[in-house]
Specification:
Layout (H helix, E strand, L loop, with lengths): L26 H17 L6 H15 L4 H13 L9 H4 L7 H7 L2 H9 L11 H7 L20 H16 L10 H10 L7 H9 L1 H12 L11
Helix pairs in contact: 1-3, 2-3, 2-8, 2-10, 3-7, 6-7, 7-8, 8-9
């Protein structure tokens, strides 16, 4: 049995950090995860291919952190499903231009827990695979200021720490109703500046190591984004 959560030095021995995958996942399950990720992206025209970007970048980061190909594939699968809980969020909130109200942001913050609940009935994604926990915790912050549970440091599952960087990169580089798209270089600078705050420094180092690979894949997939100012991430 492979443990992708106990490989890195300094990880806490919490239950969230000890989840282990139950072996290779069947191909049909991975294909289903990709299809569900595309369905979530299709719900919002502004997030086209977001789940695929998160999945691929997460896989690159995992490999750069020393994960085996099989372990990295688990994180890749979680990337496709990380936002599946947005199915339960009203379109009026997801696609609202401008700032969200406090109440609307509280609704948005439910999507990781909703997503965990959606995949829980699938045995290969729940429990030992760690995928459900990655979905639940991909908006936690390394400094403990994230959601839904306010976990910090190594108490956050390592897969979720990887997803956090990939999710932020993709979101910053995509145009949304409330903001313009950043360049890769601008998004990269934001990620580097948040090492030890929002993001695990080890994941940020893996990002720096894989920078050219990530940039090549993203630009090959959708071309260079146009840098525009500011906005909510």
């Amino acid at each position: 049995m492979i443990n992708i959560f106990g490989q890195l030095p300094g990880d806490a021995s919490s239950s969230a950090a000890k989840a282990t995958p139950c072996g290779p996942l069947v191909l049909t399950l991975h294909q289903l995860a990709e299809s569900l990720g595309r369905a979530v992206d299709a719900k919002d025209a502004w997030t086209c291919a977001h789940s695929e970007e998160v999945a691929v970048v997460s896989q690159i980061l995992a490999l750069n952190m020393g994960f085996t190909p099989a372990q990295a594939e688990i994180v890749h699968l979680a990337g496709h499903l990380h936002d599946i809980g947005k199915i339960g969020i009203p379109d009026a909130i997801l696609q609202k231009p401008g700032s969200l109200t406090r109440e609307e942001f509280e609704v948005i913050k439910r999507h990781p827990v909703i997503g965990e609940g959606i995949v829980q009935p699938v045995k290969a994604l729940n429990g030992e695979s760690g995928v459900a926990l990655m979905i639940r915790h991909h908006h936690e912050r390394y400094d403990g200021c994230g959601y839904p549970d306010g976990l910090s440091g190594c108490c956050i599952p390592i897969g979720a720490r990887i997803l956090a960087v990939s999710d932020s990169l993709s979101a910053m580089m995509q145009e949304r109703p409330y903001k313009g798209a950043m360049s890769f270089e601008h998004a990269e600078a934001e990620i580097m500046s948040q090492a030890g705050k929002m993001y695990d420094p080890r994941v940020v180092r893996a990002f720096a190591k894989g920078r050219e690979h990530i940039l090549s894949w993203i630009t090959g997939m959708r071309g260079d984004p146009v840098e525009q100012a500011g906005g909510r991430q």
